[in-house]
Design goal:
7-stranded parallel sheet, binds adenosine monophosphate, 17 strands, Rossmann fold, 16 helices
């Protein structure tokens, strides 16, 4: 029985595979496919809300339909905070952990604000990496599917000509990496003069010194009466100078007073470098891995390890920044669809990527700093579900491990002989 039935006693028909059509509620839900209910355990990051409903934000009916079909029953804390403020056209600085519903917290108000009777680009969503841009545009399309909103994604590493052709058609929302959109805007192919909402996701990465001048130029092409909303898990000092200049009187949302990684149990195993593959093999046989992401510190090591894992007889893909974009997209897509159980990657993969079925993350190589650790480990335990992180630690990594524990105020314990499956199998 789904929650919709429980709440209002309505009828649902069809779908032996879990999906069914809702009837007789007398609400916007009639005729929609009931999403399959997610019954996994969730942590307070996503359940500790003020108890609002999406209906409380007076959203368009067509938008509520998309939200419902996506399976979102109630707004998460970051959504409760951010949606009404973005709808008020204010500048926003939002600090929220990965995996707590950050993306929909800005996509929902952006969709609400979009006027589909106009033919202009009204919302610009800036994203630092190509994979994340693709994922984000897919969510815009999904949630906005009943609204007639046209969303386009444009990133480096793809044909500029195709993008130019697509811009001949109506586009309301653009999801872009900075370099490509600046290119299109400077060539006067993308007209940003009606963009009144600029979203910057993973803002700390976007505002790294290499991107900052590009961003300033992009903002200069948008409507002078724009709002800027920055979303990030971390807000380093580099971001502060930018905010002073470009994001006046922002509304601050901070749902990350403590940077603990709730819901994710972290272990370390002391090993020597040459024992690492053997140790990984043991982990694979002992753990109930639904899907895992395994991090290495260099492109070379990613490829070598993927080869070794395959030789051990496990299904495995790899992805890194030196691969061609089309290959990266294919691997990402197939892993997400469950084609392989394991994915070996470099830090390319650390930001914002959302694959719900990943319940184990392994640091085959320990990361260089706490921020990278946080982003890597955040790949499991999405939307407050449980996850496991295992760090293979050599003699040289010991100090780094302690530093991460201190800086993040978290505990990484020695791996026990038997790991309770209740810690990471939902
Ligand atoms: P994010 O923090 O944007 O990466 O989102 C993490 C995951 O939470 C994604 O898989 C979303 O589909 C899911 N999610 C976001 N908002 C909600 C919600 N209100 N209810 C249930 N799941 C959600």
């Amino acid at each position: 029985m789904t929650s919709v039935q429980q709440q209002n006693g309505s009828q649902q028909n069809g779908g032996g595979n879990g999906s069914s059509v809702i009837e007789g509620t007398g609400t916007f839900r009639d005729g929609l496919l009931a999403p399959v209910k997610d019954t996994r355990y969730q942590t307070e990051d996503v359940t500790d809300t003020k108890g609002r409903d999406f209906e409380d934000f007076f959203l368009k009916r067509e938008l509520l339909m998309g939200i419902f079909e996506k399976g979102f029953e109630k707004p998460s804390p970051i959504q409760e905070e951010a949606i009404p403020i973005i709808l008020q056209d204010r500048n926003v600085l939002a600090r929220a952990k990965n995996g707590t519903g950050k993306t929909a917290a800005y996509i929902i108000p952006c969709l609400e604000k979009t006027d589909t009777s106009l033919k202009s680009i009204q919302v610009l969503i800036l994203i630092p990496t190509r994979e994340l841009a693709l994922q984000t545009s897919a969510i815009v399309k999904e949630i906005g599917k009943h609204m007639g909103v046209h969303c386009m994604v444009t990133t480096g590493g793809t044909s500029l000509k195709d993008d130019i052709m697509r811009l001949y058609n109506t586009v309301h929302i653009i999801v872009a990496t900075p370099g490509r959109i600046l290119d299109l805007a400077s060539k006067k192919v993308a007209d940003l003069s009606n963009v009144k909402t600029i979203i910057m996701d993973e803002a700390d990465k976007l505002l790294s010194p290499e991107f900052q001048p590009v961003l300033e130029q992009i903002i200069g092409q948008c409507n002078p009466e724009h709002q800027i909303c920055l979303f990030s898990a971390t807000f380093p000092v580099t971001v502060k100078g930018f905010c002073k200049k470009f994001v006046p009187s922002p509304y601050s949302i901070n749902l990350m007073d403590e940077l603990t990684l709730r819901g994710i149990t972290q272990f370390y195993a002391y090993v020597e470098e040459r024992q690492k593959v053997h140790c990984l093999n043991t982990l694979f046989t002992k753990l109930e891995v639904n899907q895992s992401i395994i991090f290495c510190n260099s492109v070379n090591r990613v490829e070598l390890l993927a080869k070794k894992i395959t030789e051990l007889g496990y299904s495995c893909y790899y992805i890194h920044a030196k691969m061609q974009q089309a290959n990266r997209n294919r691997v990402f897509h197939e892993f997400r669809n469950g084609a392989t159980r394991h994915l070996v990657t470099s830090d390319l993969f650390t930001r914002g990527i959302d694959i719900q079925s990943v319940n184990v993350v392994i640091n085959f190589d320990f990361p260089k700093n706490s921020e990278t650790y946080l982003h890597r480990i955040g790949r499991s335990g999405r939307f407050g579900h449980l996850g496991l992180a295992v760090n293979l630690i050599t003699q040289e990594d010991r100090a780094g491990l302690r530093r991460v524990e201190q800086e993040l105020g978290t505990e990484i314990r020695a791996i026990p002989p038997i790991i309770d499956r209740g810690l990471y199998v939902g």
